[in-house]
Amino acid sequence: MTTFTSTLPEELLLKLNSVSKRLSLPKNKIIEKALQIYLDQLNRAEYVQSYKQAALDTELMEMAEEGMEDYLKQLNA
User: Fold this and answer.
1) Where are the chain's structural domains?
2) What is the DSSP letter of 4?
3) What is the 8-class DSSP label of residue 6?
């Protein structure tokens, strides 16, 4: 594991200390979990955005529809 040093706003640090004591968890574990959740949410948001953009691409939609027609033909064969 690598050591990372950072600064936090005083108010955020006070909240972190409070949660750490209440949950009896080290602050670094809370930060690690929160960062992982945040990064996962960013990844999901990028994924959703890519699908929204794909839905607007008529050429891509036509290719997908053609692919589904071929797939259905194979299923019915």
Assistant:
1) 25-76
2) -
3) -
